[in-house]
Structures are given as C-alpha cells and as structure tokens.
Task: structure prediction
Amino acid sequence: MNPIIGRARAPSNIALIKYMGKKEGSANLPENSSISLTLNSLCTLAEVSRELDGPVEFQWTGEAPEFVTGDGPVLVPQLQDEAISKIQSHVRRTDREVPAILKHFGLESFPPGGRFILKSANTFPAASGIASSASAFAAITLATTLTIACDKELFSRAFKSEPKLRSLLAAISRQGSGSSCRSFDGPWVFWENEQAEKLESRLPELAHFVLLVSASEKSVSSSTAHHRVKSSPLWSGRVDRANARAQQLKTALASGDLNQVARLSWSECWEMHSLFHTAEPPFTYWQPQTIGALNWFSAFLNSPASAANPFPIVTLDAGPNLHCLVPLEAAADWEQRIRTAFPDTVLLCDRQGKGAEVIS
Ligand code: PMV
Result:
C-alpha cells in the first residue's frame, strides 16, 4: 500500500498578552488568558508520510519537506533527542485523539497506528524567540491529521469552513506546545483554558517586523520560564492583571484603537520580562541591543498619541528579539526608520496571517 501523505503549513504567532505560567500538572493549560496575532510567512512546513501496514514507529528525518510554498528558503531545525521524543508522543496523541473529533464532523478515520515519518522545516531560526514550537506543533498536528482522515478533500473543506474543528485540533496541538493552539486561526486569537478562538477586530491590517538581535538558541527554555516565573514576588496578582489586560485588549481590538493596543502590549511585555528578572534565580533574555531597541521604541511610545500617527505596537517574546507591528500602509516608512536606526541588525519582515492551512 502506498504511504498516505499529509502536508501542512502553519505560521507562528506573536502574543501581546502573554501565556506565561501554566497550571501545574496540566497539559499546558495557561494560568491566564492570552491574545496573539497570527503571522504569515514566518512559518513551519510539515510533511507526514504514513504507512498504515508498517510497524508502529516514528521517524524524524531531519530533512526539509519536498513541497514548495513560495515562503522562500527554509531551515531544518537541529533537534535533540528530547525534542524528537516530545514530537513522537505528540504524533501518537494526535493519532489517538483525532478520530473522535473527525467523527463529530461526520468524517471517517483510518485505524490508529502504523509508521509515521516526519519532515519539517521553518522559514526562520528555531528557538530564537519567534515561537518555533508554536508553528511547528500546529503544522505537525495538521499534517498528521491529514494522514488520519480517510477523505483528505472532505477534511480540508471542513477545516476551512468550521471554526469549531480548527479549535478542537488546536486543543490537541496545545498539549504538545501551549502557544501552538493560537496558530490555527487568525489574525487575532484569544486563548483561555482549553479553548483558542478567533477574535473580531477593527484594526487595520498589520505588518510585522522582528529586529533579530540574536538567532542563537535561548539559554532558558520557555518550559523553564513558565515554571520559574512563579518564584517571583511579582507573580502575586499576575494572573488577575493579565486577565484584566486581555479584556482591555479585546475592547481595544473591537473598537480599532491602535494606540490603546500599543500601550497594553508595551506594559505586558515589560511585566513578563520583569517576572523573569525577579524570579528565583533571576534570568534575562535581553542583550545590549535589546535594551538599545527598547529605548529607541520608548521614545515613540512616550510621545503624545495621535490617531493619525499611531504608536508602533512593540513586544518581546521569551527571547532577545524585538517584535513591532504597524499598519501595512505605514510599513515602508517604519521599515526605513528601523533600518536606519539599526543598520547592522537583521530585520525580518512579515504581516498578519490567517492560520494553519492544508497544502494539497
Ligand atoms: O508555548 P510555549 O511553552 O513555548 O510558551 C510560549 C510563551 C511565550 O512565547 C513567551 C508567550 C506566548 O504567549 O506566546
């Protein structure tokens, strides 16, 4: 029997209200709600080839998938054994849990088991604060699901048209990597407990820039960070503050208030990094250039707000790289300003996107 091939593409997402701190012993359930913008071409491509009659086995080939999406050159991440076995468990979990979801939508599944071979690659450096695990787990969950559904065509149509199906697959993906559940929809996604779903927004379309201060592997993994932030004296009240800020952000998105979105993002970014800086033991992702960039952007955020010349939306993930969102129509101006201010730093340019997709 020929192998069944599943191909998917999933973008990364950048949180403005952060998922930081998970419920102990849970399958990546967040302490607080978070809100993110789904990106477009900063993404993972995944290809799963499955032999139903093969031995029960999983293999990560360390090669790029054999399909092209027009996203440009891709990088195959260097995965350690621990990461490979995490992905293997996730593929098995997906194989176990997806059939019940498909059944709910009237879709049939192949029997579980067999040999899964995975190829995946990113359009950006892994583990550099650009949430490679978010796009990777979303793409792997979707590509694996495509090898479980008997009728790929029917599944793809349902995936496009049923937000509930996307949200249920996102909940499986979340168990592999929390933030990946926000990469199934877009552009704006709200995640609370088990559920990640699209948010309505009246903001204009946004461009996304990453000032790539460093592309090397981060010294403190996000799993360690989720655990360690709870040792900070600032953890007390954090969950309520983040949830309140998420509600304020929802309101600002619904009314299209860019300046309020920028203010909330800026405060949230400083608060998450303050948790890192005051944890026991304290740690930081900042490098000298990160501080230089924060200072440079603070001049804009500290000047008077105007609707005609809105603040840039600025944030940092768990990494040294600075993310900036501006309306698409102002993107060329901002790109020039940033390149002039930081001539020696690589600038990645992207825009908002719609979430994970099936590649046929
Ligand atoms: O999904 P994880 O465990 O890699 O956590 C991601 C956490 C942050 O990127 C720092 C914040 C977020 O909400 O994406």
About this structure: The first helix runs from residue 81 to 104.
